[in-house]
Write the structure tokens for this entry.
Amino acid sequence: MIELRNVSKTFTLHNQNSAVIEVINDVSLSVAAGECVALTGASGAGKSTLMRMIYGNYLTQAGQILIDGVDLVQAEPRDVIALRRETLGYVSQFLRVVPRVATLDVVAEPLRAVGGSAEDAQARAEELLAKLNIPQRLWSLSPTTFSGGEQQRVNIARGFAHLYPAMLLDEPTASLDAENREIVLSLIEEAKARGAAIIGIFHDEAARVRVCDREIDVSQFTPGIAA
Amino acid sequence: MSDYNFAYLDEQTKRMIRRAILKGLAIPGYQVPFASREMPMPYGWGTGGVQVSAAVMTPDDRFKVIDQGADDTTNAVSIRSFFERTAGVATTTKTSEASVIQTRHRIPEEPLREGQILVYQVPIPEPLRFLEPRESETRKMHSLEEYGLMHVKLYEDISRHGHIATSYDYPVKVEGRYVMDPSPIPKFDNPKLGDMAAIQLFGAGREQRIYALPPYTQVVSLDFEDHPFEASKPDHPCALCGAENSYLDEVITDDAGGRMFVCSDTDFCEARQAAGHTGTMNGKDAA
Amino acid sequence: MTPLLSVQGVTKFYGHHIGCKNVGFDLYPGEVMGIVGESGSGKSTLLNCMAGHLTPDAGAVVFNTRSDGPRDTVTMSEPERRMLSRTDWAFVHQHARDGLRMGVSAGGNVGERLMAVGDRHYGDIRGKAADWLGRVEIDAGRIDDRPTTFSGGMQQRLQIARNLVTGPRLVFMDEPTGGLDVSVQARLLDLLRGLVRDMGLSAIIVTHDLAVVRLLADRLMVMKDGHVVEAGLTDQVLDDPQHAYSQLLVSSVLQV
């Protein structure tokens, strides 16, 4: 489902004496449907960078990133957009939304984007928000005013609204209490059970052990972390 | 007579104006630019109409001038005497006897016939100017037949008054092509514009535009399906001649709110009275 | 799939000065494209060339018309192009007063495009105008008020209603949120996003506000001195800019 072949990336800082930083060198990995793989390594090892490359958020200089057979590195923007809409989900650490939009609409949007009816999308959004213990009185408010933990849960609800065949999870259990952490882990297990291929970053070791089938240490691909 | 060329204007100027008139007749409703001359009267007193009249006039013509339908108002009297002096043509107040009729704000009640010419004085020839002040843009709109804006004007009328309140200067479409300003005639007169036997010429002196309707031209007043055009007039008979279907002026008769409605077309009214028709206030002391 | 708009080698000079040079891209149905750059970078010149307000010195702007398929709008006749611009195209100006008739009521402003394409039933026109005022969150009770009595945000929403009432497929926007209060901007952005999604609109948005493109645009082009220096997915260009100028642009944004 997710396959990386000889993937490399450098950052060129044009405005800082054109410094070139090699961040990822020659990564090859693959994640099958129903499998969850953890990216590990010390802070700054390039876990988030690699994940953002797999989402197409960071430009990849060399190699192939195949998601469901589509090479993200070569794909046209519209193909990447279609892939993100239909196939590839991403739960980032930060919630980024249009101010003023109601939480319910934020969560329902991925379903509306794939052509779901407003009613179905709202029903699914309500179900997820309730499951993640977001009080109903907050549903009509914009999540921009919520606490960090609440924002994180809204972010997860949105990420799991559509049943993506491939998912990228960046610290999904960070800043969550035990009860909500448990709910998120069960959501991940459900996703695996329906056949989603998942790549995750978990500082929470117990969580990692519980949901992940394999670990990949990113440090081995990062030649210049000291630089 | 020797002091002036016939009908005041020199022959070269008349040629230029006649060319504009012919072009206007060839493209009904299209505004033809012309080099308007200074006339011995202020703009707004009919300089455009006078130049068109001068250009079409021949020594055999019989000339009539009406202002708001009347032959005896200052403007009508002075233009009539202008051509009496500069062209020596015969004049008349009778619609049926005139061969050239210059008018401001009315079309005579009596139907015109072939061979007659009706010359309108036009203050603002551009019907689109109300909403689009740029001349370059209105010309483009005419050439591309983009006339949605005219209906915006009518829409605004209905939204504000519940009906189309434009009662004069009511825009028309000519032969399904050009939208035209019929000059400030009451919309009561609009139906007479179409299918008229006489030639209709429009002259705007200050704006330097001439346009025309050849005989028997199709002229349609703009409207909405659910708010059709209506040629309205005051709902009274003429107080002097009793006419039910003529356009009326309201005349205030005293300081106590007394008023009467009389035909605005004085020739029409007088002819009816001479034929024995009478209204409610005829013979009484109206003043 | 045929692009809705295919821009090919569009070049515009002002004398010896470059307006924009050799710009090309394809825009597909439903896509929103942002164009950013500083003042004088050529982004507005490019927008005006695409929308038919300026004639490019070279290049083609091919639009996939409903009736005849792809047509170069640069070489098509002016009546055809003007017809496009009041049916399938819309143009939202930065200053609402450039895109509205300030002497005409809100209803008349929205109704104008309908009347321009031949609607002649007052009741229908008014009904559609009222519906659109509702969609852009203007109280229907204001339908007979002139835009001069509206706030800046309301004027901008009215301009959007006036543009979208004929169901265009492509919307050009020039700094649509410029000059508005931040809170009003957010409301407008939300409205635009909803309309783009629900009507399946394609849009080209010129702005210097990176936050606006991040929220509205799928794709982004960065312009400098009349040239496109970088293009790609919006979040990729903003989060991992490749060109020196893009890096400078992104790093120059003040964080709140």
About this structure: The interface with chain C takes residues 11-15, 52, 56-59, 77-78, 80-81, 96, 98-101, 112-113 of chain A (CB under 8 Å).
